[in-house]
Structure formats: C-alpha cells, structure tokens
C-alpha cells in the first residue's frame, strides 16, 4: 500500500465527510488549549518576533483546521494587548498529504474572519495562510524557519505497513484474520509495528528539529495505548471489530479472502512510555508537558456516563467516524462497492460490543521544546 497516495480523509462537507465527523479531534484540541497557550505565549515572549511561522501538520479539511488558527491568533492578540507591542505578522502553513481536500479549507477561510470577529479579538493580527502538500515524514521547510508546529490525531498513521507483515508462515499470512495487531497476531506482528513507529517517530523528531528555530516548540496529540500488552490495545479492539465485519463479507463471498489477507493498516498506537523513551533517547527536545487523557469513539457520548443508552445509535455514530477516516483506504483495496455494506456491519458489531464494554482510548498530548 502506498500510504501517501491512499490515506485521505473523506473530503467535502457531506454527511460522510471528515469535516462532518471530526468532533473527537475537536474535543481533543479544546482539551489541549492550555498547552497551546503556554507554548505560543512563551515563543512570543522569548523570541520577540516581527514575523512568526506556524505549521499545522496533518490539518485535513474541516472546522478543526480553522480552530487552531483562531486559537493561535487569539493568544498572540491577547499577548500584544498585555505588552503593548505590535503584533508579529503570522504565516500559517496547512500541511497534509497531496490528496487532502485543500480546496475545502481555502473556501472556508472567510469563516476564520467571522470567528475572530465573534470572539472579539481586540488587536488585529496580520496573517497569511498557505497550503503545504507533502508527507511530514519528509522535510517540509528550510532549516530553522519555523517557530511552532502543531499536529492533532496524525502521528498514529505510520509511513508504511511494516514490510514483513505480508510474509507467509507455513503457507498462512503472518497476520491472518487481523487488519492490525490483534489478540491472535503472533508477537512478531506487534514488534514489527512497534519498530516501524519507532523509526517513523524518530525521523519525524529529527526533521522537525532541523526545521525549528532554536527554542521553537511543538504541541502534538495522537492516539495511544494504555495497556502494556501490545496485542490487546484499545485500537486492537476497534480494528478487530472492523476485521470481523470484513470477515463476515468473506464468508458470504462478497470479499475475496486473499484481499482480506493482504490488508493491514498503516497505523500504530504507542504507549506513553514508548513515546517518552524515543524522545529521551534522541535527545533533541525537552518534554515540557506530557498529559495523556481519555477519549471515546462515540463523539456524542459522555466519557463518565456508565449507562448504555442507545447502543444501536452509538454504533452508527462510531461507524460514521471510522468511515470518514478510512473509506479511501478501504475503497482502494477492496473496491468502493463494499463500503456501505461494510460500515453498516461494523455499526452492528460496535453496537453489540457497547452492550458490555466501552470503546475508550487514550490520547497522548505533549509539548516539546527544541534544545538550545
Ligand atoms: C484524523 S486526521 C486529523 C486532522 C486534523 N488534524 C484534526 O485534528 O481534525 C489525520 C490527518 O493526518 C494526515 N496524515 C497522515 N499521515 C500524514 C503524513 N505522513 N503527512 C502529512 N499528513 C498526514 C491525514 O491525511 C489526515 O488528514
């Protein structure tokens, strides 16, 4: 699978689009506001800039992209009000893979002005917005040219499915019956995914370190894993339900078994300890904050609510979220004709699962500062 070509959230603003189904990362963005405020304020105060470059890596398309911009502009505006200084000119780069719906973002930019007016941002901050296509696993900027990087819900997407996952053992595919690390995956599958993440994340840190000015900062949040058992993580359960839905289609002759056997996700959710170890070993960044928090696959469900309300509706909610994220990958591998049926089956499996268990997962949120 060529991840850069195939990974793409559903564009536009229809019911199945990512824009209409991105409430979970939005909640995460609101949750990391204090971290964002701390990082941007420190950059503003310490670097005393006339111009400031900010990049959102993996911006996708939808309301969250603009939320980050309005947050940063508001923070800078408030700082200027306090200090009486002229605001810096802000350059925002919105980065994602080439198939991202950049047009949708550009067409909605006037909403940014509206939201700044609605929030009564007092000091007007000059800003410029540019789209930047390309993988964040490669260089995106000239050396030492960026003050602040942000990325929400992206780094769990690795650059490729680990190469050896497609191998056969005794004539059987190594990860038979799974599309990610699952309870029945051999330990080697977990190790291969873990190693791919380690290599990608180390590379990401090195590249961003090259691009950041000294003392530049990053606020990153991405999906993680609470459990120590790599074969039994929260996302192993979620993707396990999708694998079950695909398998039911194989049983009914709607999907080729061979197609299912060759489908594995370019995805990995690390534990907080794994992430911390990689950052520490590399030694390029100081960890300023590391604050994991819980999230839930149903955007309309309250985390603390233990009562199972309408599991069927909740199954449908969760299915819409997952569909908006991986429809393009499914369609590219299995063909677009299976998509409606697959996500309807998935909704049913999720609904059943929710009768006895939750679908919560941790989000790893951290702020990092480039060492001097
Ligand atoms: C779940 S979306 C998150 C979007 C947005 N940040 C938000 O909070 O709603 C993940 C995004 O990361 C992008 N992405 C994944 N891997 C990437 C890579 N290597 N380079 C750039 N973008 C990537 C995907 O295309 C997708 O738009």
UniProtKB/TrEMBL annotation:
Keywords for the protein's UniProt record, in alphabetical order: Magnesium, Metal-binding, Methyltransferase, Transferase
GO biological processes: methylation
Residues forming coiled coils: none
One Pfam family hit: Methyltransf_7
Superkingdom classification of source: Eukaryota
Gene3D superfamilies per UniProt: Methyltransferase, alpha-helical capping domain, Vaccinia Virus protein VP39
GO MF terms held by the record: metal ion binding; methyltransferase activity
Statement: the UniProt record of this protein carries the keyword tRNA processing: no
The keyword Lipid metabolism belongs to this UniProt entry's keyword annotation: no
This protein's name: Anthranilate O-methyltransferase 3-like protein
